[in-house]
Amino acid sequence: MRSYFALAMFGLAVTAGPAGAEVLDLGVHNANLFSLGNFSTRGSDVEGAVVVKGNLTASSYSINRKNQDAFGSYSLVVGGNLDYSSASLNNGSYYVGGKAFLNSVGTDRDTKSVSASPADLAAMAAHAKTVSSTLSKLARTGSTSIAYGGMTLTGTRRAVEVFDITGAAFSSVNYFNLNNLQSGATLIFNISGKDAIGFHQNGVGLSAFANYNVLYNFHEATNLNIQNVGVQGSILAPLATVTGGGAQINGNVIVGNWLAGVQVNADHYFKPVNVPGYAALAPVSELSIWPMLAVGLGLILLINVRRRDQLTHPEPLAA
Q: Does residue 319 have a pLDDT over 70?
């Protein structure tokens, strides 16, 4: 029976996969901006690649000027329809799942249409929502306080610091003071609240984050406004429709719908990092549960068969 047990346990271990895989990866494959819904704007740019699960409508716009392709060679991926005019599209292939209308669009020799999507966009969208929800459950490590129009963030000298902030508090302050943070640390901000929240620091106050690996997780926001501010760090807001203007973001941007005239720069991307406790909070998908159940049932069946075989054909007793 030991051989059956060992075989079943080996299969269970292989099916379950490696334990303690706590690396936080946004899963956007180097895209500068990923919209889970639609993208509609004019008069600005995204310096890197753009991925849109729904439709993209833009004019007087520029995409991927800095040649930061997604999936290795794509400047633009659109799951729905593309309506792009008086604009530029550079340095990579583009895929459109629906109808494509391009009018007065400047391209270069590397820009070409391809017929194959590089990824399952629905799976990418589900992953973004799972990451945001999981991060919101992480235990807080740092503390916050507000005084004289500014917010002081106090860390614990860890490689990864987690701060919990309400959207109302975050939107109300004009600058940040950073205390007791490890050089180059990853800073995760779990920002709660659904409506009327965003970055309203009036052009100042966020430059202090430039030397850190920063992720702003708006895990509940359905409306997010970014106005007259320079954001240092990546934004994860998979439920939010984003509006605003007169601003710029330096990092990855993951949103529900993009309606903003905000410049998105291809730098300060979020670096995958090991986050203690992250894997333990992530939900186990049904696809991973069923194989493990099957192996477990197989183990029970093998044991029962072995027992019946022993009862039917008992081994002779030693003389």
A: no
Q: Where are the domains of the chain?
A: 2-21+285-312, 23-274
Please choose, from the candidates 151, 136, 138, 148, the residue with its C-alpha nearest in 3D space to the C-alpha of residue 209: 151
Using alpha carbons, select from 85, 38, 96, 67 the residue that is nearest to residue 242: 38
196 in Cβ contact with 223 (< 8 Å): yes
pLDDT digits (tens, 9 = 90+) for 165-218: 999 999 888 889 999 999 999 999 999 999 868 887 665 667 889 999 999 999
Report the amino acid identity of residue 162: V
Q: How far is CA 309 from each of CA 140, 297, 306, 317, rounded to the nearest angstrom?
A: 56, 18, 5, 16
Cβ atoms of 243 and 262 within 8 Å: the answer is no
- Measuring CA to CA, which residue among 96, 99, 91, 101 is closest to residue 115? 96
pLDDT value, residue 200 = 74
Residues 282, 251: Cα–Cα separation, whole Å: 24
Least confident of 14-28, 212-226, 230-244, 265-279: 14-28
21-49 average pLDDT score: 95
Confidence label for 65 from pLDDT (cuts 50, 70 and 90): very high
- Antiparallel, parallel or unpaired: β 23-24 and 113-114: unpaired
Residue 276 pLDDT greater than 50, yes or no: yes
